[in-house]
């Protein structure tokens, strides 16, 4: 069992099939769900799963809805991201990683995030801060 930070392989194929719409207005709804360190999330993850998802006070299964940043192009790369931070408010839980998925399109997986260590919140906020939307740092970059 492991959480491996990566874009999901199925997501890469689905981009070519025009399944995901990241537009800020009228685009798909993307969510982030949080997971225990015992979850198995990696490039082979194809859809949102409750297996290994955290349970805690103030946390709703399925996670939090993200706000899309309009897709852009810079230095020949397509850049995709979300408004930062995404905040889980007043939660009591422990988590190690997250799964971004497209709830509009049958909960198809987009990418896995590994937070690098377990985080514990006791009635606190957990902020997921996305990197700047730039060719070397956007959360999703297609070269």
Protein described:
The protein is built from 1 helix and 8 strands. By secondary structure, the protein is mainly beta. It has one domain. The strands form 2 sheets. A 5-stranded antiparallel β-sheet has the order 1-7-6-2-3. A hairpin with a 2-residue loop joins strand 4 and strand 5. It is globular. 33% of the residues are buried. The model has no long low-confidence stretch (mean pLDDT 96).
User: Approximately how much beta-strand content do the residues carry?
Assistant: 35-45%
Q: What is the overall silhouette?
A: globular
Radius of gyration: 14 Å
Q: How many H/I helical runs?
A: 1
Q: Give the domain tally.
A: 1
- Computed structural class: mainly beta
Major pleated sheet = 5 strands, antiparallel
Helix and strand sequence: EHEEEEEEE
Order of adjacent strands in the largest pleated sheet: 1-7-6-2-3
Uncertain segments of ≥5 residues (pLDDT<50)? none
Give the helix level as a range of percent.
Answer: under 10%
**Number of E-type strands:** 8
The gist of it:
This protein has about 140 residues and is mainly beta. The chain has one helix and eight strands, in the order βαβββββββ. The mean pLDDT is about 95.
Compile the SSE list and pairings.
Blueprint (H helix, E strand, L loop, with lengths): L5 E2 L1 H8 L13 E6 L28 E2 L2 E7 L2 E6 L3 E17 L5 E21 L11 E3 L1
Antiparallel strand pairs: 1-7, 2-3, 2-6, 4-5, 5-8, 6-7
Entry keywords:
143 residues, mainly beta, three-stranded antiparallel beta sheet, 1 helix, globular
